[in-house]
Every structure is written in C-alpha cells, then in structure tokens.
Amino acid sequence: MLQQQGANTPERRLTRLYRSLGATDRDALLAFAEFLAQRGAADPALSAAPVAAPQEPGPLNRPPAESVVAAIRRLRHAYPMLEHGDLLHQASALMSGHVLQGRPAAEVVDDLEALFARHYSAYRDGRQA
Fold first, then answer.
1. Total tally of structural domains belonging to the chain
2. Closest to 119 (Cα-Cα) out of 77, 86, 71
C-alpha cells in the first residue's frame, strides 16, 4: 500500500492520538489546545497602552464548578493590565498539572487565582512578578 504524502504530519499524528482517547481525555486535550491557542494570540492593544496609575482588576466572581480554561479566561479579563507572557507560561504549567497529572480543577483554579493575584501585586507595586 502506498503511503500518502504527509501521512506522518503532526496534524495527522494528533488526529490519530485524539481518536485513540476516551471522551474525558478528548475534552481535556481540546481544553488544553484551546488554552495554548489563546496563549499564542496576544492582544497588542493590551501591552501597547502605557498606564499612568495602576488599574484595578475587574470582577473576580468565580462560578461554581468552573473549568480551568474558563478560569484562565475569566482571570485574563479581570486583569487586562498584566503582561501575559510570563503569566501565561506559569498558567500553562498549572494547566498541564490538571490535564496531564489529573489535579482537580478546583485546586488548579485556586492556584491560578493566587498566581494572578501575585502578578497583580507586583504590577501595583511597580515591579516584575
């Protein structure tokens, strides 16, 4: 049988892996992929505007049984003044602990809230986190 051109591309490999997973693991993989895609789409408007005085975070209301991806989205919207590069790198490590190591979502969301709060404190004090 002839092998199709590009049969071992990363996309095809990912598709094969996705199809081999159960429903729960598929959902986790999709959530992680969405997180990575969102992390890569930096908003230049957020980092381009200089801020004279520290901004206050937006609403932090945490819904019950919030997913890790939803928490990251909520916290990014609540803290638009933060530089997201290093912050999202650290959030990615927490997300990996949830997806790959099975840490409960509630624990990871607690850690994410503490991470964003630390970065906000550093921002407010005029220093790097």
1. 1
2. 86
What's the pLDDT tens digit per position in 12-41?
A: 888 888 899 888 888 777 777 777 777 666
User: Which distant-in-sequence residues (6+ apart) come within 8 Å of 74 by Cβ?
Assistant: 60, 62, 66
Question: Is residue 30 in a domain?
Answer: yes
Decide if 105 contacts 67 (C-beta within 8 A).
Answer: yes
On whether the pTM is more than 0.70, the answer is no
Terminal CA-to-CA distance of the chain, rounded, Å? 56
Read off the tokens for 124.
Answer: 């407010």
With respect to residue 92, please indicate whether it lies within any of the assigned structural domains.
Answer: yes
Q: Which structural domain, as residue segments, surrounds residue 71?
A: 23-47+57-124
Residue 82 is encoded by which pair of tokens?
Answer: 């933060």
